[in-house]
Amino acid sequence: MRDWMVERRARTKQLIELGGLVVKAGLVDLTDDDRTTLYGAFLALARKLQGEDRDQALALWKRSGKRAFEDEAEQQKHIASRSHEDSRQ
């Protein structure tokens, strides 16, 4: 496979995953899928990351995201174990 195809696929995968995070965070529903609002929010986020609070904001958001991923994984495990128990009955 050509290099440009590999790079294109990797970029497509990255964009799909980032879009998934926007949906997972509830931003699409909370903004009624208003792309202008979403873009404005992302610009505000970028400005914050260019400011003096950058390190503090990144640490806070990283902890929050990590906790959310862990909670979701725990919920998925619970759902899977319940489904497995139900199928044995």
From TrEMBL:
It comes from the Bacteria. Residues 67-89 are annotated as: Disordered. InterPro entries: Conjugal_tfr_TraD_a-type. This is Conjugal transfer protein TraD. Pfam families: TraD.
